[in-house]
Write a structure and sequence with these properties.
CATH architecture: Beta Barrel
Order of helices and strands: HHEEEEEEEEEEEEEEEEHEEEEE
Number of strands: 21
Oligomer: single chain
Shape: globular
Number of helices: 3
Helix content: 10-25%
CATH superfamily: Porin
């Protein structure tokens, strides 16, 4: 009984702290919006130099995305986005976020960059989200900027946060461009804490600005005409960390070096839109006990999309992964076996060959005020799957309600089955300005 009371007291204190933080944050944003609205006429008079957007939201969730046993959560996700355009060629953009279930996360300043745009060249410098790939939701070439997988939101893109660096884009021809990425520092994705052993240390060796930590990539992209396609190469560190053994029995979370060779395409065949994406990712894992670490892999996605009826769209994709030098994590025993299983879940490497399918059915009704979709993914090897129905209704230009369910199922030694505790119901009301 004593333990129960103390836990309840701690829970109340944490909720009270979150409420205070949320109230202060909302007060700051609302005050800023009111102040900015007063000066709205002055900005318009000068040609809309400053553009301000954002949203305030409140939600209820039956669980979280940390793979723990916490239930019945109330919270808020808020954003303030400012775009300053002193002239047609120069833009300053800042995207600030607050997530009550991750109040100290790196996502608080999601992006902050300057963009210089000329007719044949553009340069973006600062913290920015760089997303590669043309496939639907599952993107093998999307390896540059990290995510915080613990963020609780109705939009998975809110999990993204930017990396500091330079993005240059050269428009060689009307349909052909060359993209160059240079990142002088690195930030790892944050995986759910429930995936990790207790008291694990986190390596920060790649986070300093240095020549050795510099990552770079290049992409040649053709957009327009019958075919859209690109080829890409990236060299840096895997945004997904791996569990490694340190000195003695210590466990350390590190990000291995990696290289990615990728391509994607999109075209239309009659009423079907066809998309494909492929990446070979080479991981530089430790050589001491190779069977416990993630290995290099080939990842392919091929999909097709079309309108079923006027208001409904069907998207279906085939997924394929091949793991090179594969070691079955189930054959490793003791502490190395626990490390092997943890890495297999983080990197989705339970099987040498993995095939699966994704299906998304989406529609819009009532003059696009009502939107709904059902997304599902099934992996054939272990029959694990995830299903997400989502409904969104827009009451007005400012108010919107969202309802979604995340349902993960499968055996514990499977990718989606390993995320079973992240199954939840999520209801959100948001105000956009």
């Amino acid at each position: 009984m004593t333990i129960s009371c103390s836990c309840r007291t701690a829970w109340i204190k944490n909720r009270r702290r979150d409420i205070i933080r949320t109230t202060v944050f909302i007060w700051v944003i609302v005050s800023a919006v009111l102040a900015l609205n007063v000066a709205d006429y002055a900005w318009c008079a000068e040609g809309d130099i400053i553009e301000i957007n954002g949203f305030l939201s409140g939600y209820y969730a039956s669980g979280n995305r940390k793979l723990d046993n916490e239930h019945s959560l109330f919270g808020t996700n808020d954003a303030l986005q400012v775009k300053v355009k002193p002239d047609s060629k120069l833009t300053l953009y800042i995207d600030g976020r607050y997530f009550s279930n991750n109040p100290g996360s790196q996502n608080n300043l999601r992006e902050a960059y300057i963009n210089w745009n000329l007719d044949s060249f553009s340069l973006r410098a600062g913290k920015q989200v760089i997303a590669w790939g043309r496939a639907d939701k599952f993107n093998p070439t999307d390896v540059i900027t990290p995510r915080n997988y613990e963020i609780l939101s109705s939009d998975d893109d809110d999990q993204r946060f930017g990396a500091i660096g330079l993005l240059g884009k050269f428009f060689v021809l009307s349909e052909l461009s060359l993209e160059i990425v240079v990142l002088p520092t690195f930030r790892s994705s944050k995986v759910p804490s429930g995936l990790l052993p207790p008291q694990i240390n986190t390596s920060r060796e790649h986070e300093d600005f240095s020549l050795g930590n510099t990552q770079c990539g290049i992409k040649v992209d053709k957009s327009g005409g019958q075919w859209d396609l690109s080829v890409s190469y990236y060299k840096g560190f895997s945004t997904l960390p791996m569990i490694t053994s340190g000195n003695g029995f210590d466990l350390v979370l590190r990000n291995p070096k990696m290289q990615m060779f990728g391509m994607d395409f999109a075209t239309t065949v009659k009423q079907w839109g066809i998309r494909g994406e492929a990446a070979y990712v080479e991981l530089d894992s430790p050589k001491d006990i190779p069977q416990i670490y993630p290995h290099s892999y080939l990842y392919l996605v091929l999909g097709a999309e079309r309108n079923i009826v006027e208001s409904l769209t069907l998207n279906i994709q085939w997924l394929h992964r091949h793991i090179y030098k594969f070691h079955d994590p189930e054959t490793v025993t003791g502490q190395p076996g626990q490390i092997a299983k943890g890495n297999a879940l983080i990197h989705n490497q339970f099987d040498k060959q993995q095939d699966g399918v994704t299906v998304r059915i989406s529609g819009k009704w009532l003059n696009d005020t009502l939107q709904a979709e059902v997304v599902g993914a099934l992996l054939f090897n272990r029959h694990d799957y995830v299903i997400r129905p989502k409904v969104q209704y827009t009451f007005s230009d400012h108010w919107k309600a969202t309802f979604l369910v995340d349902l993960y199922r499968g055996p514990e030694d499977s990718f989606f089955g390993g995320f079973r505790k992240n199954s939840l119901t999520f209801v959100e009301l948001s105000y956009q300005f």
